[in-house]
Design brief:
CATH topology: OB fold (Dihydrolipoamide Acetyltransferase, E2P)
CATH architecture: Beta Barrel
Largest sheet: 5 strands, mixed, barrel
Structural class: mainly beta
CATH class: Mainly Beta
Radius of gyration: 17 Å
Amino acid sequence: MLNKVQLIGRLGKDPDLRYMPNSDAVANVSLATTESWKDKEGQKQEKTEWHNLVFYRGLAEVVGEYLKKGALIYVEGQLTTEKYKKDGEDRYITKIVVSDMKMLGGGGKAESEDHSSAKPASTAKPAKGAGKTAKSDMEPF
């Protein structure tokens, strides 16, 4: 079976970086992906989808330090759904647990420094001009 999500989009807010009681970092952020097309009358139309992203450990620290609202990123991860109660009713939220992230475009710190996490990434080198990559040290489910 396969549970894999790949997205390119912009952050809707600055990352929310926190630490769990065991000192592991967790970062949450929303990612916007926008589709555009022309309707029958030739008018440009757009639709934006919002995705809840969760980063863990070293990758979370990279996200907390280097990403800001509006940053363009590529992410890979797994869909998860959490159930919670609100006002006595069951509610659900779908999140993407990110295992791999690449910073695209921009400049500044993100372009000038290496952002590898504590666990070594693959030895493959990115294509010339590609953004920095960071991989999660989170174990698969």
